[in-house]
Amino acid sequence: MNKNVDRTLLVIIITLVTLGFFIFSSASLGLLAREGAHFSSVAFSQIVFGIIGGGIGMFLTSQIYYRNWRRFAFYIFLGTCLLTLAVFIPGIGFEHGGAHRWLIVAGFSFQPAELLKIGYIIYMATWLSGTQKQVATFKNGVLPFLGITMVVGIILLLQPDTDTFLLMGTAGLAMFVTAGGRWRDVGLMMLSGVVLLALLAFSRPYIMDRITTFLDPTTDPQGSSYQIQQSLISIGSGGFAGRGFGQSIQKFEYLPEPIGDSIFAVFSEEFGFIGSVFLIGLLSFFTFRGYKIASHASDLFGMLLVVGFMTLIVIQAFLNIGAMLSLAPLMGLPLPFVSHGGTALLTTLIAVGIVLNVSKYQKKGL
Predict the structure, then answer these.
(1) For 246-298, what is each residue's pLDDT tens digit?
(2) Are 340 and 281 in contact (CB under 8 A)?
(3) I need a surface site. Which of 270, 279, 291, 365 has the fewest CB within 10 A?
(4) For the segment 189-213, what is each residue's pLDDT rounded down to a tens digit?
């Protein structure tokens, strides 16, 4: 045990946050040409809550001994579940586009589902590390896992927030396998997930539109396929070396959500193939280092925490990039460390702070 955080991972995180800030700064200039956009409030949220608040949160969680989270895991999970349900309370819950995903407190809005991610991972790691070999049984392994995950699923699908539920379910499955779950059970749960997604697609047209657009991006170029069409134009116009920092054209009028899930397209237009490869390489290095820390964790609980948090971040990042390249369905997921979202960046940095603390107590050899 070296009692020092993994410096390599720390440098990667700082690089991603710094690079993300410059990408966000350039992409946010596109808001100036759009009616109803509030550049100052967006910048304030990203800098104060995301970067400054997230930096403080990462420092604090990197100092808290990770095993202490086990003592409060149930209360953290319960609290984040109740907080996420509060989006349905009139007066503090905020509805936008038919979705109840935001709370407004003292004039500031945030998504409590981001905190639910942390609560779910901590509680799942606590339960799985305590079941030991029973995780391979149906009664004491599969059923409790499904029960915990479905509690989260019901809360999120009511909002609705299908994308976040799928992310959390994937992270949960990764933890289940790590804890010794049988691949047969994982396969059956994945099959059940596909059936559930199919049912949701038929009951919620926007999910069907995403699947149709993924299978054929030219289906509705002025409707459901518009974002992916503009994204591909943006990425393609960047060429090999890009137009240059701040020189994106698509972000001003054509590309939907230039500071949100389309931010990778803005980055690719400005920095081209070279910049895109660098960012993807940096995220890949982040992935490799994080999972290596998990493999050297001093106990199963620490390993599960790292696997859960890393899977959440990594899957979201590569699904976002894949969607912009028409290699994955468009899910509306922000790009971690880069896209606008003060709450998202805050919770991401809190999560990697826990990963850094686990790295303090890792076995020698990393």
Answers:
(1) 888 888 877 888 888 889 999 999 999 999 999 999 999 999 999 999 999 99
(2) no
(3) 365
(4) 889 888 888 888 787 777 787 888 8
Looking at residue 97, what is its pLDDT? 65
Using CA atoms of 249, 254, 259, 262 in order, give the dihedral in degrees to the nearest 10: -100
Nearest to 226 by CA among 205, 259, 256: 256
Torsion, Cα of 244, 338, 28, 40 (10° steps): -140
CA 86 to chain centre: 21
Cβ-defined contacts of 155-159 (< 8 Å, 24+): 155/81, 155/84, 155/85, 155/116, 156/84, 156/113, 156/116, 157/200, 158/88, 158/100, 159/87, 159/99, 159/100, 159/101, 159/113
> pTM for this structure?
0.91
What are the tokens at 328? 């994955």
Amino acid (one-letter) located at 300: L
Q: Which residues contact 251 (CB under 8 A, 6 or more apart)?
A: 26, 27, 29, 30, 234, 258, 266, 269
Residue 44 has pLDDT above 80, yes or no: no
Neighbours of 305 (CB within 10 A): 29
Best CA proximity match to 337, nearest among 5, 4, 21, 91 = 21
Structure tokens at 317: 């990042």
Tell me how far apart the alpha carbons of residues 322 and 318 are, in angstroms, rounded to a whole number: 6
Residue written as token pair 């390249």: 325
What does each C-alpha distance from 148 to 122, 163, 301, 323 come to in angstroms?
12, 18, 17, 29
H or E segment and range at residue 104: strand 99-105
Structure token pair of residue 306: 């790292």
Give the residues across from 38 on adjacent strands: none
Residue 271: CB atoms within 10 A of its CB come to 23
Tell me the backbone φ, ψ of residue 213, rounded to 5 degrees: -65, -40
> What is the amino acid identity at position 266?
V
What element of type H or E holds 300?
helix 300-324
